[in-house]
């Protein structure tokens, strides 16, 4: 039987937004991949692709896939099924596919959903990158962890009682998925006298990066691409 | 008055060990710095410098500093005082100093101690990089965070009751500074039926990288440059 050797699937984190925060390894694999795949918004745009594009040879084939984002996961799951099927055809044909992800591929990254659909049938490799919270502490110029401190990374979507418990018991806290939960979070921080220890970081590492002390925000603030970092020391 | 413009201090994370995990930004600044500074062991060796060295021009001046590691912080503080004084002389002379750090400069990084001594007197910039735990999840091929999960990053040096609480309540846990605390951690994981959900990762992203399921370890295991990653899903 004349079976073609299947291709390899790479999950590549492109970092938090600054194109210079790509790793050398990510650049090498973006240059050598046969196919570059990435999630897009409904208009077909992809921040991950924008970061990678300057390193991709013109001949590289692009494979964008739109993933609808809403609380019901069914539509997203169908989109991942479809993307995984398209990617697997290229892998079956012996082509290497680099699947891009903002931040790190395994840190709230969309790649996890492509990965779980393909890991049993193809060779895979994850190229790690820095999650956004690391770039946030660099932007704030406040060390994230020193000595024997801990760090809690939590999504703002948690139940309020759990959120409060994590925020009260951690030395340092990075809150992801802030968006429409901002007013609730601000209220919690105010109640526990933590407004002075917290900062809102928007568009971290990007040109529009904006750092706002939480004490300077109000309940009507509508942050974009943001996280809240709390350092209690 | 003919005052020289002072230099800029860069805190540069070089990543977890694989030289290809350097960012493009780190490489650019390693190339352009007048002085490259880094902590060393007692023999004068530095992993951070080894990672950066291939990118540094031959003329770059090196400034290694030995930091004694023990529970008593007094000796370390004196070493940081001395290193900061030497670095400040170069900054005063108008030279840019890149201070290297394994992992990320603000994530249990030694740079925080240089930074706090110099931030009030000099221009500073932090170049973020990935902490080791991100490379660990890539090595394990287990997503670190999906959907609405949380992640606790904790040092093994915490009081046992706090350790147990964090390990029991988190979805995902990355335990740093494992070393001589290994037997205690293993015991906790066994007690709470978590051995099957935990992995020991040694020398992450380096040639000697070794992944061991915690269930395959025993109390006598003596891990090197290691962390324990727990993913409960």
Walk me through the structure.
Two copies of one chain form a homodimer. By secondary structure, chain A is an alpha/beta fold. Chain A folds into two domains: 120 residues, Cobalt-precorrin-4 Transmethylase, domain 1, CATH 3.40.1010.10; 100 residues, Tetrapyrrole methylase, C-terminal domain (Methyltransferase, Cobalt-precorrin-4 Transmethylase, Domain 2, 2-Layer Sandwich), CATH 3.30.950.10. Helix content of chain A is 30%, strand content 23%. The first copy, chain A, contains seven helices and ten strands. In chain A, the strands form two sheets. A five-stranded parallel beta sheet of chain A has the order 3-2-4-1-5, with helices on both faces. Chain A has a five-stranded mixed beta sheet with strand order 6-7-10-8-9, with helices on both faces. The first copy, chain A, is elongated and about 65 Å long. In chain A, 45% of the residues are buried. Chains A and B meet through helix 1, helix 4, strand 5, helix 5 and strand 6 of A and helix 1, strand 5, helix 5, strand 6 and helix 6 of B. Strand 6 of chain A pairs antiparallel with strand 6 of chain B.
